[in-house]
Structure formats: structure tokens, C-alpha cells
Design goal:
Blueprint (H helix, E strand, L loop, with lengths): L1 H10 L16 H12 L2 E3 L8 H4 L10 H24 L10 H24 L9 E4 L11 E3 H18 L13 H13 L4 H16 L8 H4 L11 E5 L12 H5 L13 E3 L1 H6 L11 E6 L2 E7 L27 E5 H14 L3 H12 L17 H15 L6 H7 L3 E3 L11 E3 L11 H6 L9
Length: about 450
């Protein structure tokens, strides 16, 4: 199982793993971009080379014959599930509790990865949480024949069961590095699952899990220096889980950095720009360090070492950047991928507490994050005066601006049932508003599945 487990983590960062030869097909982080654009918090700002443009114009998700992202996401996440099922079978099956500590760790990670994949499928292919709605086929062991759609409640029961089991199995597991899932990451995944159900009891469960992660002391919030420091190192103390990329991975243009980092060999560097929504940016307080993350690189001599914060195209070139600060500089990607960080848990805990009326707790959690984003506590003292929907709205706003381009905006939009309005800097549909359950914001089950699975003939929307 250990070799197979390494195989899954490798699949998560592999080019063309979604079954195409498209450059936008590069594993889990590709769907961070697809979903961020659908949320509109990340804007497709300019269209050179046309990458992601039609997706941001909401033309791809409605067409089941379009491979991106409909086929690639389905294929990718079910590939992860298939690999996880093999490991689980090798380790003794779905109900096994191995004696061997290493095998226990492998089984726990495989179950967490299976739940991770079903979670993203449930977010991308269903309009919203509806317990009785049939949404996805469930596969839990190798070699299973084609299955019909199961109800959302069944998909969720599997995720909750897998993650609860994983948390138990990983209790004594010590990971070699943050490339691997440990108990806190499994708790983080379960917190996301619970938070997406929109029920009071599951909100409290999500909050409690987030608090357990924070209180474990394994991670510390990224400082203001760190959040403007490039986001390049998996070992950063605020990071919970990611991918340790080296030249051996062979990633270049077809990678997250290849679409997002101006200082890598990238589309971002040739005018195919994605950056923060202008309306969101303008709401960031002047003394908030995150105001410095977005703007326009400025040429100084032969290099782009300068930076004008707040200037179009508002790309995140002082949030995510190769530290050499040379345009096209990072040709083979060695800067690491981030999948989860502890700031998400502070924000999720605050959000769940606020929604459940535990306002003092929510404010205290939010202020812990803001203390790392402002130098002067007076700048965020306004939080103390917030209550009710105003407090929830503030936590939503802080979540959006903290996690821009980290693949979390779409999950937030769906769980809080948001309507997001596009700012003036979107290439397409500027000024338009989109509800969380707009069918254009949910992926289509791919035509390939409709043709090859005799039990599935309809969309979920």
C-alpha cells in the first residue's frame, strides 16, 4: 500500500491526469482555478492565448461534451477514488483495523483521500446540499461495475464514515512531511464536509474540529511577512497539507504556477491574467497587508522587480511568486503547491460560530487572524461592534480576501448560499451577479459518462 499511496499523491500533481492533452489539465490545483473563476472572487482579467476565457464566460460548464472541466474533474477525482480503493483493499478492506502501525497509517490516508475526492465531486456536480437528490455513483472497492447515482446523503455518509475512521487510524501516525495526510488534515477535510451541510448540528461539529486543529499547536498562522512572501514552501508553519514539488515532477507551463505566477514560465506573464475581483480589492482596508498582494509588476531595468499594489491587472504577484522575481524565471516548477492551511480553520471556526450565534467566540477567532494582517489593533477593533448577519458577512469577506486563488472561494459560496457580483475588471460579464446555485456554476456530468454508464442519463441540474 505504501507505494500505491505515493502514487496517489503523485497523481494529484500529474499533467493530463484528467485524460486530455489540454494544458489546463494538471490535477487537483487545476480545479482550484476552475472553481475560483466560477465564484468570481478570482477574475479572468485578460484573454491572450484564450486560456480559461470561455470557462470564465460560463460557456464550458453547461456543455457536457466539453472536456474542461466537466470530463477532467470527473476523471481525475474518480481516479483518486479508484487508487484509494486499491489501497483500502490491500490493507484489509473497508472495515479493517490493521495491527501494523504503518499499515494503519496507509489505510487512514487512503480513506481520507477517498473522502476528499467525493467531497470535491459533491461540490462540483451538485447545485447545493439536498439530502435526497441523486448525484454521484459510489465506488468503494476495486473492480466494481458501473453504478447508478446515489443520493447526496449516501455520498455524505460515506465521506463522514471514511474521515471519522481516518481520524482514528491516523491517531498514532507521524508523517514524513506535509505531502502526506495526517490526523489534523483528516479533521480539516471532515470540518469542510460538515460545514457544507447547512445544518446547526453539523456546523457545531465543523467548528469543534477546526478548533481541535488550532489547539493542537501543530501549525501557526502565517504572518504578514509570510503572506506576502511567495507561498513557495511546504514547510511553512501555517501550511497543513500540500505537495512538495521538485524538478523530478517535471512540471512547467501546465501547472498551477504556469497559469498563476508571473515569475514562472506562465500564461500570467504573457497577458492571460487572473487576479482578484476589483470590487473585493477595493473593500480591503488600506492598512491590511493583503492590500499589498495584488497589483502590477513594474519593470526596473531588464527585470520586473518593482510592484504597484492596487494597479491593474491586480494579479497576485506579491502573494504567489517565485522568489527570483524574474519574469518567466521559474521554468521547471520547484515552488510547492498548497492544499490546506490553518488560517482556513480559524475562518471556518469563526464562520460556524457566528452562524450558530456564538458571536464572542466568532469575533475572537477572527481577530486572531486579523492580528497577523494589521499592525495596529485599532484597525480591526470594529469587529467588536458587529453582530448577526453583519458579523457573518464580515467573516465571509475576510475568508474571500485571505484565500484568494487558493481554491476555497467556491466552497464558501455554496455553503453560505452567496450571490457574488463581478467587479469591473472581469473580461466577461463584468457587473453581472450570480447565485451559488446558478446551473452555470456547477459542472456537467461528462458526455463520456452518460454514454458509457447505462445507469446515468441525466444531469444534476
Amino acid at each position: 500500500p505504501a507505494a500505491r499511496l505515493n502514487g496517489i499523491y503523485s497523481q494529484m500533481v500529474t499533467n493530463y491526469i484528467g485524460g486530455t492533452e489540454e494544458q489546463e489539465d494538471f490535477g487537483h490545483k487545476s480545479f482550484d482555478i476552475f472553481s475560483d473563476l466560477l465564484s468570481s472572487d478570482l477574475a479572468q482579467i485578460s484573454g491572450n492565448y484564450n486560456r480559461f476565457v470561455q470557462h470564465a464566460d460560463l460557456l464550458w460548464t453547461v456543455d457536457a461534451s466539453r472536456l474542461l472541466p466537466n470530463f477532467t474533474a470527473w476523471r481525475f477525482y474518480y481516479t483518486i477514488i479508484k487508487s484509494a480503493n486499491l489501497i483500502i483493499a490491500d490493507a484489509g478492506g473497508n472495515d479493517a483495523i490493521p495491527e501494523d502501525v504503518a499499515l494503519k497509517g496507509d489505510l487512514g490516508q487512503a480513506k481520507a483521500l477517498r473522502a476528499f475526492a467525493y467531497f470535491y465531486l459533491s461540490q462540483f456536480y451538485a447545485l447545493e446540499y439536498e439530502a435526497d437528490k441523486k448525484i454521484l455513483p459510489i465506488y468503494t472497492f476495486p473492480g466494481q461495475k458501473a453504478q447508478p447515482k446515489s443520493a447526496m446523503s449516501e455520498v455524505y455518509n460515506l465521506m463522514i464514515s471514511d474521515l471519522t475512521s481516518a481520524i482514528d487510524l491516523l491517531s498514532s501516525y507521524s508523517r514524513p512531511n506535509k505531502n502526506y495526510i495526517n490526523q489534523n488534515v483528516a479533521k480539516g477535510l471532515l470540518a469542510y464536509v460538515y460545514s457544507s451541510m447547512g445544518q446547526s448540528n453539523t456546523n457545531i461539529l465543523a467548528k469543534n474540529l477546526a478548533n481541535e486543529i488550532i489547539n493542537s499547536g501543530e501549525f501557526t498562522l502565517m504572518t504578514s511577512d509570510e503572506v506576502t512572501g511567495g507561498f513557495t514552501q511546504l514547510k511553512t508553519s501555517g501550511w497543513m497539507w500540500g505537495a512538495d514539488l521538485t524538478t523530478a515532477n517535471g512540471l512547467g507551463l501546465s501547472s498551477w504556477h504556469g497559469f498563476m505566477d508571473f515569475f514562472s514560465y506562465s500564461y500570467q506573464a504573457v497577458g492571460n491574467n487572473r487576479g482578484i475581483d476589483r470590487g473585493l480589492y477595493d473593500q480591503i482596508a488600506p492598512n491590511d497587508i493583503r492590500k499589498q498582494q495584488f497589483g502590477s509588476p513594474v519593470r526596473v531595468g531588464t527585470e520586473f522587480k518593482g510592484f504597484n499594489a492596487g494597479q491593474d491587472p491586480l494579479i497576485p504577484a506579491r502573494k504567489f511568486y517565485n522568489l527570483d522575481l524574474r519574469r518567466f524565471g521559474q521554468n521547471v516548477i520547484e515552488d510547492d503547491y498548497i492544499y490546506m492551511r490553518v488560517a482556513e480553520m480559524y475562518l471556518l471556526s469563526a464562520e460556524m460560530a457566528a452562524v450558530e450565534g456564538q458571536e464572542l467566540e466568532a469575533k475572537n477567532m477572527l481577530k486572531q487572524l486579523l492580528s497577523q494582517r494589521f499592525e495596529d489593533a485599532a484597525d480591526y477593533a470594529y469587529v467588536d461592534g458587529l453582530s448577526g448577519q453583519n458579523l457573518i458577512d464580515e467573516i465571509v469577506f475576510q475568508t474571500k480576501i485571505e484565500l484568494i486563488a487558493e481554491g476555497k472561494s467556491y466552497l464558501l459560496m455554496k455553503r453560505r448560499k452567496l450571490t457574488n457580483k463581478r467587479g469591473t475588471n472581469h473580461l466577461n460579464r463584468a457587473g453581472e451577479s450570480f447565485m451559488y446555485n446558478d446551473p452555470r456554476l456547477t459542472f456537467s456530468i461528462p458526455q463520456d459518462e452518460l454514454i458509457n454508464n447505462p445507469f446515468i442519463s441525466t444531469q444534476n441540474k
